[in-house]
């Protein structure tokens, strides 16, 4: 019997919340760890984005996050590049937690496929697709 490929463990940033989105993703079969679970509460509120990006990349965890202005945050993009992080970002700030989870779950196959690729990259997660944000010429192959 062929061995099934193991799904990666994803790192969920505080921007997606500590409880509902992680619960909905886990209910859908995702393996993940939240920023709060990794760093503890209340320490999770004080961890700089560049620090957890580096840690997630070092651990081999693709990142799930919400950040409307990620494309303008040069220091975070530099951290993604330097540490070869693999990131999936929702750039909408006006959705409910259930909608963020639904957006990730509806793109689960594409996210899993892209998560198997080497970093660095950032994909934006839309309702029906992934688009490369960094580097711009990347495709989900």
UniProtKB/TrEMBL annotation:
Domain VapC45 PIN like: 8-91
Pfam annotation, one family: PIN_10
InterPro entries on file: VapC45_PIN-like
Protein name per the record: VapC45 PIN like domain-containing protein
Organism from which the protein derives: Actinomadura rubteroloni
Lineage: Bacteria, Bacillati, Actinomycetota, Actinomycetes, Streptosporangiales
């Amino acid at each position: 019997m062929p061995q099934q490929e193991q799904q990666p463990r994803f790192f969920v940033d505080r921007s997606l919340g500590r409880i509902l989105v992680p619960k909905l993703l886990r209910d859908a079969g995702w393996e993940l760890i939240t920023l709060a679970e990794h760093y503890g509460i209340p320490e999770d509120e004080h961890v700089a984005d560049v620090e957890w990006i580096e840690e997630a990349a070092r651990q081999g965890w693709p990142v799930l996050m919400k950040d409307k202005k990620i494309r303008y945050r040069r220091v975070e993009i530099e951290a993604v590049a330097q540490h070869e992080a693999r990131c999936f970002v929702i750039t909408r700030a006006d959705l409910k937690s259930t909608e963020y989870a639904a957006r990730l779950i509806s793109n689960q196959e594409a996210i899993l496929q892209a998560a198997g690729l080497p970093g660095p990259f950032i994909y934006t997660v839309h309702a029906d697709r992934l688009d490369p944000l960094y580097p711009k010429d990347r495709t989900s192959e």
